[in-house]
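call fold(seq) -> tokens
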Amino acid sequence: CTTATDWAKWIAVRLAMGALPDGTRLFSEATAREMWRPNIIVGSSPGPTAELPGRAIASTYAMGFQVQDYRGERLISHGGGSPGGISATVLIPGRNVGFAVFSNAEESFLLRTLRSGIADILMGKAGFDWIADSKRLEAEGNAKSIAAAAEIDAKQAAGAPHPLTLGDYAGTWKDPWYGDILIERRGEGLWLSFSRSPALQGPLEPYDGATFRTRFPDRREEDAFITFAIVDGRPVTATLKGVSPDIDFSYDYQNLRLTRT
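ret:
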């Protein structure tokens, strides 16, 4: 799809359970239903309240779609994003309506406001001030993030010295799933490079003892802690995790298990 008109046609096909305007089918009704059948429980809660009118009792994941209850009705959605923009497509099958939002800004609260606000209008349940609520949540989140960043920097400043020389950490490190990560000496410090991710390259700084942290020059990328396991005076394995508590779920550093080659 290249235009909003194209995407609207796709929404119409989805709501028609695979039927095209000329009466033919892109896919069967059985396939359409299977794509919306929940496979994974993402979350659950006691349900909506006056302060949280959109909170789902059950949020699930189907085949590429999130399926949940929203204000007592079934809501099906899919979100997307790339550097510089995010989007959401929302279907309300019981009302045979759907819409999409495409934003040229990585503003999750903007997307939340539009997604929920438009859904409320289409369902005839407008009244909650999603703009004010999202601004409140954004302010609270920013305050927590700033405090967390200050705490991380303070811990680095007070961190214990690393137990080996910097050269001892240099070498090629391999994860069975990802592949190679290279650590090398550059100038007075270390430089880390993810072999398959050109943007994930930058200084590797001592943080606290055998834990180091990246500081990628491309600030769109999420930094990582890397903690080395020292055996008989040399680092032999390492694990990673994101530095920021707000890190996007797609940065699955925590799944890497590095072994020195």
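The chain has two domains: 4-135, 166-260.
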